[in-house]
Amino acid sequence: MKKLITALTCASIALGAGVSISAQAAECIAPANPGGGWDFTCRQISKIMFDIGADPGVIVVAADSPHRSLNDLVDAIKQNPGSVAFAGGSAAGGFDHLKPLMILKKGGFNDITKIKYIGVDGGADAITQTVGGFTQAMTGDMSEIVGFLKSGDIRALAVLTETRVPGFEEIPTAREQGFDVVAVNWRGLYVPKGISDADFNKWADRLARVAASAEWQEAMVANGLAPFTKVGGDFQSFIDDIVADTVTLSKEIGVLN
Question: pTM of the entire structure?
Answer without folding.
Answer: 0.69
